[in-house]
């Protein structure tokens, strides 16, 4: 990574259940690697955050990418296969927002998309922000891969991790 | 004899849900026009049976991701009527605020990304974004602040979870409401700009003699309550709804179609009906903007629905700002007893009148649910519009006819996913 280039990492997800994986990756990258990471509940929020960003790194749960916990990566404009879904609510999906940003002329020059296979997903009750053990492990695995891809130094082990060692 | 000309839109785009269109033309005669809804029914009325009354608002919210508040509002009002519960004026105002949030996000999305492309010769919102980036970005921001309002008051930007029978589970703190103020102020100005923008589109000359139907309230623009009014002179209480408005099954659609019982004719619900029947109760600001537009109200041109949405967008931002400015947290909800009863209510979803009726047993469990969504009420009218529209475009190539028919459908912002009914199944065994 060129440190002079502003990089923004965005974890996409929701507050409960394993769909929170994207948020968890962003939290880990911010806490352990001190990276500029944000959480988005709706992909469309991205459109307000792109000013001055030259490398956008997106992390989201997906379905159809393999066994649960699989971590995959694509570089825009190469796109995931059509049977891999970054679905959500009726609001605009992640890929549609990227296409829209591109048409609006505000998509950063480099966009990397990380997908974490969520399987059928565990829906947690309201207020339960814990991930299932598999999703938690996958989020750590994804965070490490993202950090490696950004060619950063190893994680700051002096920071207490928020998960069992 | 020549083969009939068949025009088919296999899957309508820029509408919520899945549906298609089939037109059969013999010579110059329109033989068949069918709005085919093939999305499977989702059986919500059956899901609700046996559920406790408190679960109802969160279950019905799942009928639609664009208008969950409408389903929640019709549900809580119907259940409160069944139980003789009256909410405080403060709760009533906050329910209007929540509805403003939904109208804002739904109308801003439809105007800018779903309907405007038809007028601008674009195939999609994405196509439009490249050529009109500032207008699209304004639309997205207008929508976003509607969702933000839902998040603050409803607990979530989509499928809110804070609506209770009797009020709300929790009321926002004053400082949480304050976070909305600047965005709502921006929204008032931006919605005026958006409305002026869409009013400048080139509208086909297509005035029709519609039977417009909406709620009507003596003191306010209709959202949560009122009597049901027709532009042809009818007036009904909500309790009389099922006596005058009847849903019927048609063979080509999984969704029901509604007609007036007394006339056997379809009718028109939604923003154009609301504006036409309640123009003098729009906010003074929205009326002032309307007065400067080159459109005369009441208006019988369905293509002008996009401007009616704009006026309601101004109204919703204006009213939301007023309610947020005056907000003082108070009692979140009133007590709701568990006892038997039956009640109905109608509220105004972004797409039009939404009717619910419920019956409860002694323990507060639902034994019956009836939901009549606005899109099923508009479907017969949409087919009628297409029949009237097609002779004007028959000399065009099929692809152009498909485009223009889809535009006619999108005038109504149909939400096909709201298929809540369970079709009665009869098995005849010989």
How is the topology of this model organized?
The complex is a heterodimer of chains A (165) and B (430).
Chain A: E1 7-12, H1 21-32, E2 37-40, E3 55-62, E4 71-75, H2 94-104, E5 110-117, H3 133-149
Parallel strand pairs in A: 1-2, 1-3, 3-5
Antiparallel strand pairs in A: 4-5
Helix pairs in contact in A: 1-3
Chain B: E1 5-9, E2 19-26, E3 29-37, H1 44-48, H2 56-61, H3 68-82, H4 89-119, H5 125-131, H6 133-154, E4 163-164, E5 167-168, H7 174-199, E6 213-216, E7 227-230, E8 235-236, H8 241-244, E9 245-248, E10 257-260, H9 271-278, H10 284-291, H11 305-326, E11 341-349, E12 352-360, E13 366-372, H12 374-393, H13 398-410
Antiparallel strand pairs in B: 1-2, 2-3, 4-5, 6-7, 7-8, 9-10, 11-12, 12-13
Task: Give a concise summary.
Chain A has helices at 21-32, 94-104, 133-149; strands at residues 7-12, 37-40, 55-62, 71-75, 110-117.
How is this structure best described in words?
The complex is a heterodimer of chains A (165) and B (430). Chain A is of the alpha/beta class and 165 residues long. Helix content of chain A is 24%, strand content 19%. In chain A, strands 2-1-3-5-4 form a five-stranded mixed sheet, with helices on one face. In chain A, helix 1 links the parallel strand 1 (7-12) and strand 2. The longest helix of chain A has 17 residues, at 133-149. Chain A is globular. Chain A starts with 6 loop residues before the first strand and ends in a 16-residue tail after the last helix. Mean pLDDT of chain A is 81; it is low at 156-165. Chain B has 430 residues and is α+β, with helices and mostly antiparallel strands. Helix content of chain B is 43%, strand content 16%. Chain B is built from 13 helices and 13 strands. In chain B, the strands form five sheets. A three-stranded antiparallel sheet of chain B has the order 1-2-3, with helices on one face. In chain B, helix 4 (89-119) runs antiparallel to helix 11. In chain B, 51% of the residues are buried. The model of chain B is unreliable at 419-430 (pLDDT under 50). The interface between A and B is medium-sized, with 16 and 20 residues.
């Amino acid at each position: 990574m060129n440190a002079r280039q502003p990089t923004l990492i965005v974890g996409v997800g929701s507050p409960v259940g394993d769909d929170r994986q994207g948020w968890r990756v962003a939290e880990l990258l911010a806490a352990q690697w001190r990276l500029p990471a944000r959480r988005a509940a709706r992909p469309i929020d991205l459109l307000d955050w792109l000013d001055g960003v030259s490398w956008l790194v997106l992390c989201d749960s997906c379905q159809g990418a393999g066994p649960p916990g699989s971590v995959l990566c694509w570089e825009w404009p190469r796109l995931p296969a059509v049977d891999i879904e970054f679905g959500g609510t009726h609001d605009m999906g992640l890929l549609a927002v990227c296409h829209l940003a591109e048409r609006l002329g505000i998509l950063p020059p480099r966009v990397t998309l990380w997908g974490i296979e969520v399987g059928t997903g565990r829906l947690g009750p309201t207020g339960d922000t814990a991930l299932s053990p598999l999703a938690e492990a996958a989020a750590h695995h994804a965070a490490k891969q993202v950090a490696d891809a950004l060619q950063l130094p190893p994680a700051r082990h002096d920071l207490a991790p928020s998960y069992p060692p | 004899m020549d083969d009939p000309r068949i025009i088919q839109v296999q899957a309508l785009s820029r509408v919520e849900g899945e549906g298609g269109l089939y037109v059969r033309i013999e010579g110059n005669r329109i033989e068949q026009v069918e709005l085919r809804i093939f999305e499977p029914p989702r059986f919500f009325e059956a899901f609700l049976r046996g559920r406790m009354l408190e679960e109802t608002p969160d279950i019905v919210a799942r009928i639609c991701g664009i208008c969950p508040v409408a389903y929640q509002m019709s549900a809580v009002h119907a259940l409160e009527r069944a139980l003789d519960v009256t909410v405080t004026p403060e709760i009533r105002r906050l329910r209007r605020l929540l509805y403003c949030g939904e109208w804002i996000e739904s109308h801003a999305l439809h105007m800018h990304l779903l309907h405007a492309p038809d007028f601008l010769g674009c195939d999609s919102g994405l196509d439009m974004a490249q050529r009109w980036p500032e207008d699209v970005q304004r639309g997205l921001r207008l929508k976003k602040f509607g969702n933000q309002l839902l998040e603050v008051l409803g607990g979530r930007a989509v499928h809110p979870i804070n609506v209770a029978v009797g009020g709300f589970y929790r009321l926002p703190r004053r400082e949480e409401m304050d976070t909305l103020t600047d965005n709502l102020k921006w929204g008032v100005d931006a919605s005026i700009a958006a409305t002026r923008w869409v009013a400048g589109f080139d509208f086909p000359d297509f005035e029709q003699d519609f039977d417009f139907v909406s709620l009507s309230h003596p003191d306010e623009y209709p959202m949560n309550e009122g009597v049901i009014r027709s532009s042809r002179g009818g007036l009904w209480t909500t309790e009389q709804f099922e006596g005058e408005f009847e849903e019927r099954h048609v063979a080509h659609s999984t969704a029901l179609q509604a007609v007036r019982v007394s006339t056997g004719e379809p009718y028109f619900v939604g923003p154009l009906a609301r504006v036409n029947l309640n123009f003098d109760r729009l906010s003074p600001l929205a009326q002032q903007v309307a007065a400067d537009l080159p459109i005369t109200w009441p208006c019988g041109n369905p293509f002008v629905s996009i401007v009616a949405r704009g006026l309601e967008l101004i109204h919703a931002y204006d009213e939301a700002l007023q309610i947020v400015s005056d907000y003082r947290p108070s009692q979140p909800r009133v007590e709701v007893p568990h006892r038997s009863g039956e009640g109905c209510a109608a509220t105004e979803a972004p797409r039009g009148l939404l009717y619910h009726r419920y019956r409860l047993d002694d323990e507060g469990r639902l034994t019956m649910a009836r939901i009549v969504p606005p899109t099923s009420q508009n479907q017969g009218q949409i087919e009628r519009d297409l029949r009237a529209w097609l002779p004007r475009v028959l000399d065009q190539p099929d692809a152009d006819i498909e485009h223009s028919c889809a535009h006619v459908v999108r005038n109504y912002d149909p939400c096909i996913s709201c298929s809540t009914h369970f079709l009665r199944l009869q098995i005849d065994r010989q």
